[in-house]
Amino acid sequence: MRFSFLLAAFLLLTTCAQAQRPDTTIIRYAGQLTGQYTSGGVNRTLLSTTHSVTFLRGLHFGAPLNGSFSYGRQDDLLKEREFLFNATPYYWLGHFRAYGIGGYERSNLRGIDNRIQLGLGPGWAFYTDSLGREVSASNLFIREATYFQDGSQRIVSRSSLRVKLVYSKGVFSLNSTTFYQPNMRDFNDYRVNQLATLALRFTARFAITANYTYTFESRVLEGKPTDNTNLTVGVAFSTK
Known about the structure:
- By secondary structure, this protein is mostly beta strands.
- The protein is 8% helix and 71% strand.
- The relative contact order is 0.14.
- Mean pLDDT is 87; it is low at 10-20.
């Protein structure tokens, strides 16, 4: 019932946006490939790739699609095999944003077979400019179902606070996104995610990137780590 209400609200929002826009569509793509290799006391290999496609329709509607996959081995044992996909369509008018979200996740590191999220909520852009620089925040209310590798499952409602910073100057750019997602019935049950990318652009489409990712989840399966940190270096390709 709740999912039906969320879907109906999002369709209504989309219809309103369509009624107000010119007939223009812009598609933007960005992809990154990063890696890490260490040997000696600890032998570790980590490969990670992220891809995003953003559809901009008219003056008020956008639909970013984001996916990432990482694979890591330590001392010849599989430790990390993470997959994440989410879609966050939004409607904007001035500084105001209205977001929907649909997400899917699998995580060997945290023992997650499947995790599905649906939700919506408001946001506000404190600063934007023609160069794509942005400071914004949003708070979505999501319904989440998680199915673990041991056969157990959890279905909870969460608040999802997101703070986003995009900055660029010359050939350098910084993109940082932070999530704080507490269980709305138990604030001791929460997640924190941080992704920051620093890029040095050497052509219009190619850049060298350094990625920092941090994940903390207060409730995980027994024997699984509650947090994980990765720092990787790689290359990125994007279109304008």
